[in-house]
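Dear U.,

For the methods section draft, I wanted the exact inputs and outputs in one place so we can describe them consistently. I've listed the two proteins in the order they'll appear in the manuscript figures. Please don't edit the token lines directly; just add comments below if something needs changing.

First protein:
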Amino acid sequence: MPRPNLISLFNSFLKLGGETAVVETHGYRRKKLTYTELSATALFWSYALSGQGVGPGDRVLLWGPNSSSWVACFWAILLRGAVAVPMDAAATIDFVQRTVLEAQVKLILRDCQQPELSAGPPSLVMNGFHDVSATPEPHALVDPGDNSTREAIAQILFTSGTTSDPRGVVLTHGNFLANLEPLEQEIVKYRNYECWVHPLRFVSLVPLSHVFGQFMALFVPPLLGATMVFENSPHPSEILRTLKRERATVLIAVPRMLDALRNALEQEIDARGWRAWFTSAYAAAQGEPFLRRVWRFRRLHRRLGWKFWAFISGGAALSAETEAFFKRIGYAVVQGYGMTETASLISLNHPFHAAQGSVGKILPGREFRLAEDGEILVRGENVASSYWQGGAIREASEENDGWLRTGDLGELDAEGNLRFRGRKKSVIVTPAGLNIYPEDLETALRKQPTVRDAVVIPLASGGNAEPCAILLLGGTAIPGSVSSQEALAQAAVDSANSHLAEYQRIRRWLLWPDPDFPRTSTGKPRLTVIAECAAKLLSVPASSDSESFTSLTSFPSLPSSLKDLSSLDRVELLSTLEQRYNIRLNETQFASAQTVADLKQLLAHPAARRSDYTYPRWSQFAPFSLFRLLVYYALTWPATLILAHPKIIGRKNLESIRGPALFVANHTTRRADIGLILFSLPARFRHRLLTAMGGENLREFRHPPREWFFAKRWLWRLNYLLVVSLFNVFPLPQFSGFRESFRFAGESADRGYSILVFPEGVINDRATPEMVPFQQGIGLLEQNLQIPVVPLRLNGVWQMKQERRRLAHLGELTVHIGVPVTFPPDTPPAEIAARLHSMVQNLQSPPSEVGRG
């Protein structure tokens, strides 16, 4: 039975109940919402919209990156019978303002990272509310009535495309349902098998402002009771980490991201010394059954997680090489074809019967044909019938009897699979009257190992055109001199030409001056912008060679020596380099780089591992946690009570904290400090406390020098195991690798562990008990964890250490517990560190209340 509207999907949320609906990350923390919680949040926002006077038919702009708040607000808009106007998080202010005026937007729902428009309608921060427990009663919600039928408008999507000016595509509930219902009927056939892999987890890299991202993240998961995981980082290593950590089933991505993932896996294969094995296995896997290929490439499947089995690609054409790569190593690759005007889909591959090189069979319920020149034509309920122009709806032209001319060229094979041929407008007609398809040339160029990406544009020639290739060289290497780059580019063009027909050959080419092409939100190169820039570059002489590393990295004040950079400066430089060159660097090797030449060498040969430190997750497993508690209460607790008998001041300050906290304290001794703090904390924190320890020291314990006598080496390794087991410590290096340490702290906080850090970074061996300034890394950690911070101060320990005493006088040792504090997300790390230092420093005067452990 056909669905009446999209809200019928939302009504299924309560049936799914406690199943996880959305998973996202905030800093180093992981947040999840169940379908019940997502439903409550959507109802909350629907009620909030009513307070802003939003009613049926009103337009509401949704502006921000993928998040659970975005999803909830989208459903809230539909529940009001209003119209969503999605906007890409990276859209320019000018484009947003033009869209607001064009669509006559009544309200803006924006992410906290997006700016408020100086002139325009009011706005609400969609992730600015944390308590949605006050869900409105059903009678407080408006009945959308006719504004939620299949013919009602669900959203207006303003898209710039790759070669045209922005325009608003009006999409109805019925447009989406016409694509969704055939999939739902097919899903029913396999529902009995879903229990074996439940829950399905989709990781989406496609923005929700794009119709493909909406279709796969908003509408398909409720049909399966699936979990949607949002990963907003473009770095392949982060994506691979998310796939394994979340035990993902499917990755939803645009072709460019799949190309990047393939390159990342290839680099890892080389870095781990697997190339010989991989080459042999790849050749042997040709024609093998699916499960046999999975087992043959189990090293790679272990890297992505054993539950992961499929890629879903859309938004552009996937390269044949990338599709063949992932299929050969034992993954399903599902491609679809569609456009905004068709509510995402025209054709789709069956996940279990995909034809390689095709974009699948035409979905039921629509008419399809190829024009004489091969252009794809389609009509049906999924096709948008109107556009938004001049502040009003304008019906699409009826001159083609309702057929949508896609502007794309295709062909059908003998099995009825659609194969994408390219853009009709992109066809280059040579002076000889021959047609050149840029996609053919781009494919030949991308096969060259030195070419990271390429586009081919037409250059005017005698009333016709000739192809000009725009090249991006090298995936990881820093460009060398201009002459060396040109030599690599010429060699790549010559090699590509050897595989092309004479009339297709590339005679003009240009190196793109930036690290990447300007792209749309789905990764498509903006051909108009590229063509305009290329025309200007081809009309002027090439610029002189510049070896300035500062200009390459956009790091404004990079000195010739890196020794004077602070830890935060190094974080900024590291992030800038990784983002610009789309790679992940080994932080330990990065810390050892002292000159610009060292950085160039590191970027030219990035290592496989992100860090040289080991993070002992095993110490948090139940057997080790139980062992730790038994040893603590049998030995450590009595010893602390007898030898130290400390006073505990301010324990009541912890009563308001229910979740994990970040404890910061001064540091005087290596082991006594931890014992005193454990003694002072309530059991709910004491039993689940993760302690930061100098990463360099822990690494030396775990990997003592090889020249040492073997007995001494094993003694140090045993010391490492005891320290980790008994105190649940993790490495927090002073100079490198601390981002991985912060990430581990975030994962532990998600599991309910509080974190103990000594931000001075050193033990107080000075002649006075005064503290040194806190390291700024503590500010960066709190900025990304966003949990309450509890200042602690240990008094009296320094005096005992100076006098070399093990037994404290009665009342000599005190542990002061300060008032928990939180910091706004935009507080600078240096300011957080300074304020925490001041708070711990001032914990001198004991309050009246004193407790015992």
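Second protein (the one for the lower panel):
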Amino acid sequence: MANQPVSPRAATAWLVLEDGTAYPGVSAGAAGEAFGEVVFHTGMTGYQEILTDPSYKGQMVCMTYPHIGNYGVNGDDAESRRPWLEGFIMRECSPAASNFRATGALDAYLRDHGIVAISGVDTRALTLKLRRQGSMKGGLSTEAKDPAELWSKVQAAPGIVGRDLVREVTCERAYDWPDAARAEGPRPRVVVMDFGVKHNILRQLASHGCRVTVVPAGTTAKEILSLQPDGVLLSNGPGDPAAVPYAVSAIRSMLGTVPMLGICLGHQLLGLACGGETFKLKFGHHGANHPVQDLATGKVEITSQNHNFALRLESIPEGEVELTHTNLNDRTVEGIRHRRVPAMSIQYHPEAAPGPRDAGYLFGRFMELMAAGSSSS
């Protein structure tokens, strides 16, 4: 009965939430135990991109789509050098990979990379619980025989508030991203601050003709400006933006000196650098179907998102920024533009992967911002 939740008697793995709720299931990845904040993702596809998105460090992801793994895995769909999330939760993990691009099966991929995963969970019930009560800490184990034993470990596990997860995912040293096909005309140099950057952001910059250099998150403003960039991109990444004060300091020092684009965590960090505050969402935005309105055009985009925190617009000193995009589900801030200096940011993912490509035009806006900065200098 693969389509039914697993009974406790047949369980080979357990998921336990911090409120004591226990879900029996079948191990579908590596043996062991893992702990993190449990969130749900509403995308139907893109599980390999989700697994390898560094923004999921510190989290355990529940996939709301019931059948996961049916098209397998392959090297081209990875968004970073390895999976980063703490654990993976599924209703059913497909034992077969039925796609011409597949080079392996999902369960073997999870085992090879040490990711603890569980299948056979009533993910519908789990998602409804998280939606009502909010994200909460959880533990996954293939070793615990008694859920109560696992629950005590969940209670002691660290949360994500105040925890610097960026240092765990950023690159160790600077590197240049391979160029795409050479574009005609000037090729701006973009320095990417790696807070957990996805490969498709780098691919998009390269496809627009940019020369891309990626630097570690702790790189100072002086070190970045010494590279003489035409623009700086503040990447996506995991966790609490308030726990990354060194990045906020560097961004604040560069405001007005070089054009900047922030994406996801980079958006929140730009907001903090402008004097604002962030707050934790009840259950975050995780999926590929979030409606966002571009206030300049009135158009609605369907967007890919992954974040647990949001920017509090009213906390930014009056006159510093203008709101450019808003979330149509909960009216949270999805984009800002600085009123006096060339800096803009968006909360969602214009590079998608997985997800729709409605927001790809934002890389073009960044190119325009850099071009305007170059002509004025």
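Candidate sentences for the figure legend, describing the second protein: The radius of gyration is 21 Å. The first helix runs from residue 47 to 51.

Thanks,
Y.
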